[in-house]
Amino acid sequence: NAGVTQTPKFQVLKTGQSMTLQCAQDMNHNSMYWYRQDPGMGLRLIYYSASEGTTDKGEVPNGYNVSRLNKREFSLRLESAAPSQTSVYFCASNTPDRATYEQYFGPGTRLTVT
Amino acid sequence: KNQVEQSPQSLIILEGKNCTLQCNYTVSPFSNLRWYKQDTGRGPVSLTIMTFSENTKSNGRYTATLDADTKQSSLHITASQLSDSASYICVVRPMNTGFQKLVFGTGTRLLVSP
Predict the structure, then answer these.
(1) A74 in contact with B at a CB cutoff of 8 Å?
(2) B82 three-class SS
């Protein structure tokens, strides 16, 4: 049981390049999330997927797209990277326990856009 | 605006000593309050979750308290160990909102020195 996995761990892009961050979970969770974490700020929600086949915008969706490929996988795409997207990106998934909605986080992808 | 503020921003303590981290929030009403531990280069890991009706929750050497009247929570670490060096993040889930609506604090960075 690997939990939530993310690839790659590190990435450097030039402004205008595109890339896709991959996330997978093996806990049979319905809901999955993408966050970004910047110095001095709390985690901010980019997009989420409440269940397979659905995606919705979070707090900071501009410049990003997502795909919920199947129940296990949720990818985040940067079509034209900008320096403002330099950040650490975390994927998370939700326990089915509706009382707490405990979230489990992946190890993160550190992205630098030059 | 829903906010979660944590203090201090950073803290250094000697191994074996106790410490207390603070969390003040303006989220109201709220469903639950969580404390996460985030090791450097890793994703956050849940330590405790308390519903609005709970006053205290323990997880080994970690004890969280909640005062819903003053909108304050604290995380007390007993007999600190070097492995406690990490960032500790307070997260509040508002009530009557979507399950994805979490409000994150910016964290307290703790360094336990030998």
Answers:
(1) no
(2) helix
